[in-house]
Amino acid sequence: MRMAETSSIEDAEVAKMKPITCTRCGTVMGPKQQKSHRYTASGLDNVVLVGVDVRTCPNCGNESVAIPRISELHKKLAQAVAEQAEKLVPGEVRFLRKYLGWSGVDFARYAGVTPETVSRWENGAHVMGPVSERLLRLCALKMDPVDDYSVLGKMATEEPQAREIRLTITTEWKAAG
Question: Does a structural domain hold residue 1?
Answer without folding.
Answer: no
